[in-house]
């Protein structure tokens, strides 16, 4: 089932109308931890630019492959010029390079898997909003595609969206699961979660550059949001996208104290 909506977002002094078809939540989880080949196949099937996919997934490997080609040529030359014993000394750099590459791939997969596990932990504490972070990530990606963000930024945004409510791990369970409307004291407790989440996520190296989007995902264009009350151009594009996606999901899903 799909819902067609028109999202209005403010970028500087301009008001942009972004028409987007945002799918309702399905049982499909993000493909975190999958190999680059599988992710690329999925993205190409979604009609994302092949060049965009290649740059994000494989461009970082170019120096590695240039090094391998250079070493292969050097080994061939030395083998012919000297003797087979040369191989004992020249293959060592190749082995080290291959090992380094495998470590890099393993580290990236581990980081992405860790993100998914963290999301599961947060949502286990607040089962009523189970799937919220995944849906916000899906909506954020849809918006990113409509805005034609590059593949790196789109992927970064999705990872941040999955972690945007991480700070709720420090919110009291009685508040998260309260069946009635929140009182002033409850709201003060809830308002802490963007800062808590930001302080955790800013320590994750590959998310540091846009971690402030998590801190500001409850801010408003008119400055009446929280925790800092900033507005307009002070908000990053990522923060604005997260705010729209988060608000949309909040309005279209049931809560303990109201229906969607």
From TrEMBL:
Q: Which UniProt keywords apply?
A: Membrane, Transmembrane, Transmembrane helix
User: What SMART domains does the record tag this protein with?
Assistant: HDc
Q: Keyword Membrane on this protein?
A: yes
Residues in HD-GYP domain copies: 107-260
Instruction: Check the record and name the InterPro entries matching this protein.
Output: HD/PDEase_dom, HD_GYP_dom, HDIG_dom
Q: Which residues form a coiled coil?
A: none
* Segments traversing the membrane: 53-79, 85-103
Cite the Pfam families for this sequence.
Answer: HD_5 (PF13487)
Supply the name of the protein: HD-GYP domain-containing protein
